[in-house]
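Students often ask what a 'structure token' actually looks like in practice. Rather than answer in the abstract, let us consider Efflux RND transporter periplasmic adaptor subunit, a protein of 401 residues. Its sequence is given first.
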Amino acid sequence: MSATESTATSATADSQESGMAAKNPAKRRRALIIVAGIFVLAAAGWLLLWLLVLSRREKTDNAYVGGNQVAISAQVPGTVVAIMADDTQRVEAGQVLVKLDATDADVRLQQARSALAQAVRGVRQQTDSATGAEAQVAARRLDLSKAEADLKRRLPLVAANAESPEIIQHLRDGVAQARAALDAAQAQASAARAAVEGTDVARNPAVMQARANFRAAWVASQRNAIYAPVSGYVAQRGVQLGNSVQPGQQLMTVVPLHNLWIDANFKESQLRHIRLGQPVKIEADIYGSDAEYHGKVVGIGAGTGSVFSLLPAQNATGNWIKVVQRVPVRIALDNAELDKHPLRIGLSTDVTVDISNDGGDVLAKAPSVQPVASTDVYAQMAAKADAEADRIVEANLPSTH
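Now compare that with the structural description of the same chain:
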């Protein structure tokens, strides 16, 4: 290659290198603009996500299913002779769960039944005695009238010396005796009336007392059969055949799987915008994304969990380390959704509260006027006792035929 050709080649290479150098800054600027645009779009997307979604909800996975645990216990002492339900089985309100030996209670019931019947008959006898005492008063009043009439008729004969003073004195004594007899009869009638007046036989105090004793014996006899106060599922059965149980001793638990709730433990910093009535979405670990529950906030705890623990923290002593506290928030569930996807108490859930509307109350303003839970099982028992007492009273009243 000649010197001229070498010089031309070198010049061409230098020209290409300077052209490429001129193009590289433009490429770098475009690349930087693209990267900056991506960051700007990501920031804008994150801002929109925060404004439209994240800032309008509070979420926690420290949330668990809660429910009532109805402890079944004995109300009277006795020996277990039958167990009618076991763990995991469903029971209905009013169903017999455990039976105790009722021999002693049946004996006391028969004694109370006889005492009530005797009380009714005793009051009937007192009523008849009062009627007889009234008749005696009428008879003594007639005797007094007769004695006074005899005295009045013979008094004029004394002035005419047609009657001796001794006879007149005897008549006066007869009047006094008749008056005393009338007073005694009236006192006896008053005493007889005091036991029965103002009420009929069924409402007489003696009958009411015997009726109350019978009612207590009847209820005690029925309590040898231990009933389920609510419908639900049996758990924690600890009673066995032959156990000697005492009043208040827990035998098993019935858990109603309706009217459940969620206890969501939010951090104290998350409570700023949580209000009563806010809608909530719940996802249970047992179903995952296959089932979504919808509830609402119905209450916020009156204190943190640490305050109500068995051994509350003593932050005023020793070295202190700040720990973020959590407050339980109660969330009501929809029973229709529970019917489709049943839950058990204690299950883990993820909770998301919609806080876009935070104008509601933080605390309830008025007390609830409805009972949290109620049962009429025991009221039915008392009603049956009253009906049985009525039959005993009616059977010992006089026949209307």
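One point worth highlighting: The helical segments are 3-52, 103-159, 165-196, 205-222, 335-340, 377-395. Ask yourself how you might have guessed this from the sequence alone, and why that guess would often be unreliable.
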